[in-house]
Amino acid sequence: MFNFKDSFSKIFKKWRLYLLISFLLSAVYFLLFIAIKEKQQIVFIITASFICSLLSWSMVFGLFGFFYTKLNKESKIFSTISFSSYWVYIMHLPLTFFISLLLYNSSIPHYFKFIINVVITYLILMILYKLVVEKTIIGKFLNGKKKNIK
């Protein structure tokens, strides 16, 4: 992406337009999805697939553009999230599994269980990262030498 920085910056300037297009395409896709359930016609399926592809690309350009224009500066918070990502990636699966077991028999709706699981897993792993990983040999092993961000 670095080699095409100028091309991407031109595309990313229109991030609002891409997000608007993606939200409109989401509505069209939803309506087509309802139509596909009622009538299993190949035209609806092909059209929905095409709309889904356009929706994906417009959402990617819109979100990349938003983050590129609004959050493209050094930050301690984003630096910590970035450096902790490998730790979270490695450790999330066993912790997610364990929390799922704890929530399994509860009467909480499944979507709330999912949200609770994600939030608790992330909070625990970020706290462990700050206390046990960040400034230790584990952190150096996972991330290499770290430069200080002011």
Task: Give a verbal description of the structure.
This protein is an all-alpha fold. The chain folds into 2 domains: 2-70; 76-143, no CATH class. The protein has helices at residues 5-12, 15-38, 42-70, 76-103, 110-133, 137-143. Helix 2 (15-38) packs antiparallel against helix 3. The model has no long low-confidence stretch (mean pLDDT 87).
List the helices and strands and how they pair.
Elements: H1 5-12, H2 15-38, H3 42-70, H4 76-103, H5 110-133, H6 137-143
Distance between the termini: 26 Å
Main sheet properties:
none
Number of domains: 2
Low-confidence stretches: none
Question: Can you count the beta strands?
Answer: 0
Number of helices in the DSSP assignment: 6
Range of strand content: under 5%
CA gyration radius, whole angstroms: 21 Å
Instruction: Estimate the mean pLDDT confidence.
Output: 87
Order of helices and strands: HHHHHH
- Structural category: mainly alpha
Shape: flat
**Helix content range of the residues, please?**
over 70%
Descriptive keywords:
150 residues; mainly alpha; 2 domains
Gist?
The protein is mostly helical and 150 residues long. The chain has two domains: 2-70; 76-143, no CATH class. It is built from six helices and no strands.
